[in-house]
From TrEMBL:
Pathway: Amino-acid biosynthesis; L-arginine biosynthesis; L-arginine from L-ornithine and carbamoyl phosphate: step 3/3. Its EC number is 4.3.2.1. Keywords: Amino-acid biosynthesis, Arginine biosynthesis, Lyase. This is argininosuccinate lyase. It comes from Vigna mungo (Black gram). Residues 8-176, 205-330 form the Fumarate lyase N-terminal domain. It catalyses: 2-(N(omega)-L-arginino)succinate = fumarate + L-arginine.
Amino acid sequence: KEAKLWGGRFKEGVTDAVERFTESISFDKQLYKQDIKGSRAHASMLAHQGLISASDRDSILEGLEEIERRIENGEFNWRADREDVHMNIEAALTDMIGEPAKKLHTARSRNDQVLTDFRLWCRDAIDGILVSMKQLQVSLLTLALRNEGLIVPGYTHLQRAQPVLLQHLLLAYVEEHCVYDVFIVVIILKMYVLSDLFTHLIKEVIRILGRLVDCRARMNFCPLGACALAGTGLPIDRFMTSEALGFTAPLRNSIDAVSDRDFVLEFLSANAITAVHLSRLGEEWVLWASEEFGFITPSDSVSTGSSIMPQKKNPDPMELVRGKSARVIGDLVTLLTLCKGLPHAYNRDLQEDKEPVFDSVKTILGMLEVSAEFALNISFNRERIQKALPAGHLDATTLADYLVNKGVPFRTSHDIAGKSVALCTLKNCQLLDLSLDELRSINPVFEEDVYDFLGVENAIQKFVSYGSTGSACVASQIDYWMKKLEMK
Ligand code: ARG
């Protein structure tokens, strides 16, 4: 058996069971790119500081280049007895270039190394998720553009509530994934900071402040050089490596640098929230695809069948979006539980932080991709929706608003409209089927113009408040998003 890189004080090797149990190479090899990148920056800094020679640095850089090539061509031999990605690469480098490789770990511990790799990996992962998220938004907006003017029942408590434009609902989904552009908005805010637009823009910022973008910015600080926990007596330059790796600055406190997993908790929280959004979307579409609702028909390309029931066509992708949200939530809970009992600084438990993150990212990317595809592959059954619209007195609140316009206090208006609904229930008809005499028998304030407010088509025209479902408001929201998503 090969001696461990840390084996100086040991007389015996570990048992096979311990080796199998403690290895992380089976999953952390995913960090190889970031590990090599970190080592390049570290070696260059060591040479700049006179801690290694320029020729040692060059051999290290050449060796790392070759290792990266081998990994990418599947020629690299990952060894469980070398524990993790860091030691696999360092040991392979030593096999390859000899003495200079032994200087690479100067003023570095795996504790700061793994976190440097992990922060870099998460940073890249966020960039990937942001692209997929934008793709989903574009798909939702495309679906909205294909269905201009379509009115659907809006629900609360899953009971019919008020009419809404389908576009309005689809834009609500788009808003949920509003996670970028924060910097632009902050700049705008600064520009207008002294003007009347201030309050309005503050609200805009709160809505737009992207969780992921925000988390990425807070994550982007460099642990490298914190070493095991205490820093080092050697004259390293942490600012140099931080800058070379594209971090904002080195982390201020070396103990914090190797202890902290807040950046992962925040990242996994953002993913869990996204997963919950997508799960709700999935639930809604699964419901709408049912015979009972019949609002949408997913195309064959996004449906699957039954092995026994020949007639079946199921919306499985969205059911799995709903189902896989459980994993993403679970990944967050795993990390929270992992961290809660740990003393500062590094503890080996923390090796368990990677798999939930890898799982969360992989799952969320799949969920985003399939939801975007599903959105482009559903058609709304206009006739069925149209037929369903008269049921449920969706115009009752508009009727109450009509009475408010006539000077009736809202509570009284609510009561009168409620009594009108009760009369409809008795007669088994719609509000617009009630005659003026019948309405006046409830309250004499009704006039002929009440019929401009009744019926779903009329009712929807009455919405004018900012952010409401009225056609003009929705058109301006569409316009906003088309510009933001560069669709025009
Ligand atoms: N594989 C380890 C991890 O992922 C690297 C750090 C190990 N450090 C140590 N002192 N054993 O956490």
